[in-house]
Design brief:
Blueprint: H1 11-16, H2 25-36, E1 38-39, E2 81-82, H3 85-105, E3 111-117, E4 128-131, E5 135-137, E6 146-150, E7 159-163, H4 172-175, H5 181-211, H6 218-230, H7 234-243, E8 250-252, E9 258-260, H8 262-271, H9 275-287, H10 307-314, H11 319-336, H12 342-348, E10 354-355, E11 358-359
Length: 363
């Protein structure tokens, strides 16, 4: 249950939150395949070994293996899937202990390492080193080399040697790149050119801002309106096009299919607008995104702090009255709609079947 609701820590928190959203079916199925259905053919231990974990015995005889219970797991095609994650992990841990014991008997202190990154570990183990916290080396390659045993994945139980000294004189120079003086000079020139370009653009903008008039000219309004339109996105382009009843003519796209070039349609319409209409167009662009109704919750009302509601209140437009009128119109239109015409009723009538022996009598 907690895997279905990853944003909640406990089952009580899930039940308390009435709007808790679960993961998708695809994500849950992927988690089940990775965490619950463990393929024994890729197991790091021998599934036939009965002495690895005596209480569990051999995996070939285990009733929790899908091949031993085909009627219980009909949706799983593979017969070598282990459905007991706890037992699987206990066998992996037993294998790790078996591989560490000879090293401990020899007086060495082997480390426990994982191939997974630290951010993927749900429960941090202080005695485990994760990927990025060590580097694999050869035995006796440096004074800091120590034996280690992998604790997870397909390599669980594998013995290797690692170095976790970030300042190791043998390995640090292999991983830390030092640029040459020529490369450092080239990088300094690139940074200077980038800084010049950024500062130049800021100063140009400030110079324009100081010369903007109190009343904007038509080119400025057109530029602002079209820039606002292009930032709205494809779905809002279509909504705005239908609000203004612009013709959505399809054209040939570069990839071969047909598409509607909304920026070109809007550019032509904006150039034909008067100055007052051009100013109103920018307000409509700011409000059109509130026309979106979420399909997953069609009953969700428009938020009171949305631009559409606040603008309606500013212009003394009663949004609730408009909603009640629309509801009444749709209800009356639905009640006035005929349930079925005479022609459709005739088509629904069952006709007698005919065959070689003549018409068949219907009961």
């Amino acid at each position: 249950m907690q895997e279905c609701f990853p944003h909640h820590k406990t089952a009580a928190a899930i039940l308390k939150d009435g709007k808790a959203e679960a993961v998708t079916v695809r994500q849950l199925r992927q988690w089940v395949e990775q965490e619950i259905h463990l393929d024994l053919t890729n197991a790091p231990f021998d599934p036939q070994d009965e002495t690895l974990l005596p209480p569990a015995g051999s995996c070939s005889k285990c009733p929790k293996r899908t091949g031993n219970n085909p009627l219980l797991f009909p949706e799983v095609r593979q017969k070598s899937i282990c459905t007991d994650r706890a037992c699987y992990r206990m066998k992996v841990e037993a294998l790790v202990h078996i591989r560490m014991k000879p090293l401990e008997d020899a007086g060495e202190k082997p480390l426990r390492v994982s191939h997974a990154p630290a951010w993927q570990a749900k429960h941090r183990c202080p005695d485990v080193l994760f990927e990025g916290q060590y580097r694999t080396v050869k035995k006796a390659e440096c004074p800091q080399a120590r034996p280690a045993v992998v604790i997870d994945g397909a390599d669980a139980g594998k013995v290797l040697h690692i170095c976790r000294d970030g300042k190791c004189k043998v390995h640090a120079r292999l991983t830390h790149y030092e640029a040459s003086p020529k490369e450092r000079a080239a990088r300094a020139r690139e940074l200077l050119a980038e800084r010049v370009e950024k500062l130049t653009r800021v100063r140009i903008l400030n110079a324009i801002r100081k010369k903007l008039p109190a009343t904007l000219s038509r080119p400025d309004l057109e530029m602002a309106a079209l820039d606002h339109f292009e930032r709205l996105g494809h779905d809002n382009h279509r909504r705005l096009c239908r609000v203004y009843a612009w013709e959505e003519k399809e054209t040939k796209a570069s990839w071969g299919g047909n598409t509607v070039d909304y920026p070109t349609i809007a550019g032509k319409a904006v150039r034909e607008m008067s100055l007052p209409d051009l100013q109103r167009f920018q307000i409509v662009c700011a409000l059109v995104s509130d026309l979106y109704c979420p399909g997953y919750n069609p009953r969700q009302p428009l938020a009171k702090d949305s631009n559409l509601i606040r603008t309606a209140a500013r212009y003394k437009i009663d949004a609730e009255t408009i909603g009640a009128t629309v509801r009444a119109e749709l209800a009356s239109a639905r009640s006035a709609k005929p349930r079925g015409s005479e022609s459709s009723r005739k088509q629904a009538t069952v006709k007698p079947r005919t065959g070689a022996a003549g018409p068949r009598k219907e009961k």
